Amino acid sequence: MVTGYVSIIVLLPIAALVASAFGGGVAASWSAATSPVALSALKLTLISAAVVTVINAFMGTLIAWVLVRDSFPGKRIVDAVVDLPFALPTIVAGLTLVALYGPDSPLHINLAYTSTAVFVALLFVTLPFVVRSVQPVLHALDTEMEEAAVSLGASSATTFRRIVLPSLLPSILSGTALAFARAVGEYGSVVLLASNIPFKSQVMSVFIFGEVENGSPHAAAAASVLLLAISLAVLLAIRGVARIGAGHR
Predict the structure, then answer these.
(1) pTM (2 decimals)?
(2) Nearest to residue 134, comparing CAs of 87, 170, 109, 99?
């Protein structure tokens, strides 16, 4: 029953997308998905998603560590603020970023319509994924092994690298996989700040939407299938590394 439900909810729409992509023939679909504009958008999307994912893998783990292991005034407020990108509709997140980094920025930092805007928007929307993946694992960790290592003369860095990190690695990789998936498919927060300028600030999701608006659903579907295939390969690789890491614990 569960398998059938997953098939109907997930696999059936994907099958319909693939059928639409190749409805005009394989050659036409490949040509649409690998046009210069599409490849430029794909390149910016994947590079931005990869860089943002790596940054948030480190920063998300650090924030989770501080929220679990440290005590400071306003800790509950910071813990709640981390979830804001989850709570805000993406279009509202986009408006927020435009207000802060747009032409009328109170910080006098105008990133509008640049590739840098893509990085900033994706950093904002993907931050909580690693934090919320790592945080419960940190709460569950037994600190006795860490205390024993320190009592035997191990440094804090060695204790973290040899004892804590192996336990956190699967959750870090799980969080990065979710962050990457969100970054690749993000639309609302990107389209307002980065706009839709081909070869400059256009990401794949915006390109696909533009193809739909221009009356080219088959081209949009072909580009979607290409992006889906690449994203699926990356996600499977990350999850494979996570399973290997969990197996060596």
Answers:
(1) 0.86
(2) 170
